[in-house]
């Protein structure tokens, strides 16, 4: 396997995981890449490694450039998560570099993973490493999205290695963002942000605020997942992060639900029609067809979360509980919402959903609508009116 040239002195030597379908609860329909980069400085440097099973693929790409992996002088670990560090202990043993750098928290994390603290050197924001004819400068980006996360900037070549920042889960042989189909790129980047980085929006805002003061002359942004950014698209990831981190309400509602005998589904359709009638947009997501990470990706730019479930064993449906638990952990902000559902005997599902929405600080537009067994004409009219109230509130919020 061959390396791909990024600049005159930087090569992509990572791996493509075409078969990846799940990433700690996040469904990756289109696989991913584990990006590692080889810097041909006077001191040859490897930026990050790959997931452990892909070590030989990385070695093959490195060898296509320098022939022998032992020519590598320095290794940098920008992020300790196993999809980037899994191969690191064996690489250290086999390459025998003169130094391995990680952030202060990175040293602690890597040692907790692999017991290799004696092989690591800690760096912090403002530190740099001399590679002979160029330098690496480090910027800690704690909680974007782990405590150890950091950026490394390569002078001369003007490359920012941004670890998980500005990346996406997308398996592709086209290493540049501008070589890929943009709607796919934007969708996968939004899904990645929503499922991985959403809880850390305050840290993203802080980074974007201080970024200009770093005075980095950047030609390339090279993340650890997905394509690299250059040219006209170079500023696009920063612009998208600024928009997503702000979480400004839009006039879009996400209606997701599960159903037993289609009664809750009928309610969902009428509620959705009411939202549309008020001039808002709506995305309808039956949980039989969509999973938790699909729902979260849609919620990222939505202003309302509307949740439906029938009652089973005095609780909401399991899939509904799964999605709500997942969303709660991601801590979306500035949302309105409501709950609905059919029931036969006791009807606790709506109250359970409201507990989740309230815990997430979602503003409830309606106390919750529950209908016994199969909804009739008057019941469906109530659903429509509930949806209309949600839509009107969304339109008003979006215009502020």
Calculate the terminal CA-CA distance, rounded to whole Å.
Answer: 53 Å
- State the share of residues found in helices, binned by percent: 25-40%
Mean pLDDT: 92
Total number of helices: 12
Sheet bearing the most strands, described? Answer: 7 strands, mixed
Spans of at least 5 consecutive residues with low confidence? none
Q: Output the radius of gyration.
A: 24 Å
Gross morphology is elongated
SS strand fraction? 15-25%
Widest beta sheet: strand line-up? 1-2-7-8-9-10-11
Quick one: how many beta strands? 25
Structural class: alpha/beta
Task: Give a brief outline of the structure.
The chain is α/β, with parallel strands linked by helices and 400 residues long. The protein is built from 12 helices and 25 strands. A 7-stranded mixed beta sheet has the order 1-2-7-8-9-10-11.
């Amino acid at each position: 396997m061959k390396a791909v040239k990024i600049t005159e002195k930087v090569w992509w030597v990572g791996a493509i995981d075409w078969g990846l379908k799940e990433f700690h609860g996040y469904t990756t329909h289109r696989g991913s890449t584990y990006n590692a980069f080889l810097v041909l400085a006077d001191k040859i440097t490897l930026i990050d490694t790959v997931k452990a099973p892909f070590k030989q693929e990385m070695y093959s790409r490195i060898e296509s450039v320098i022939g022998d992996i032992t020519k590598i002088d320095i290794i940098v670990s920008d992020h300790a998560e196993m999809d980037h560090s899994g191969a690191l202990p064996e690489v250290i043993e086999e390459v025998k570099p003169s130094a391995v750098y990680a952030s202060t928290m990175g040293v602690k994390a890597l040692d907790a993973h692999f017991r290799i603290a004696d092989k690591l050197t800690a760096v912090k924001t403002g530190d740099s490493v001399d590679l002979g004819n160029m330098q690496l400068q480090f910027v800690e980006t704690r909680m974007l999205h782990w405590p150890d996360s950091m950026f490394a900037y390569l002078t001369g070549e003007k490359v920012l290695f941004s670890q998980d920042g500005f990346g996406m889960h997308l398996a592709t042989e086209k290493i540049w963002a501008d070589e890929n189909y943009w709607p796919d790129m934007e969708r996968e980047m939004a899904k990645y942000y929503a499922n991985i980085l959403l809880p850390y929006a305050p840290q993203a805002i802080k980074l974007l605020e201080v970024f200009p003061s770093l005075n980095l002359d950047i030609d390339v942004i090279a993340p650890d997942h997905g394509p690299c950014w250059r040219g006209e698209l170079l500023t696009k990831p920063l612009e998208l992060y600024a928009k997503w981190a702000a979480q400004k309400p839009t006039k879009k509602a996400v209606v997701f639900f599960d159903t037993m005998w289609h009664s809750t589904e009928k309610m969902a359709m009428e509620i959705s029609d009411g939202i549309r009638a008020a001039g808002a947009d709506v995305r309808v997501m039956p949980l039989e067809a969509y999973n938790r990470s699909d729902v979260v990706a849609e919620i990222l730019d939505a202003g309302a979360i509307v949740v439906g479930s029938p009652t089973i064993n005095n609780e909401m449906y399991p899939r509904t509980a799964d999605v709500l638990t997942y969303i709660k952990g991601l801590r979306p902000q500035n949302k309105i919402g409501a709950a609905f559902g059919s029931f036969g005997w006791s009807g606790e599902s709506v109250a359970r959903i409201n507990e989740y929405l309230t815990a997430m600080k979602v503003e409830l537009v309606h106390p919750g609508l529950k209908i016994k067994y199969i909804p009739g004409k008057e019941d469906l009219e109530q659903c429509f009116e509930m949806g209309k109230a949600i839509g009107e509130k969304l339109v008003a919020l979006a215009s502020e």
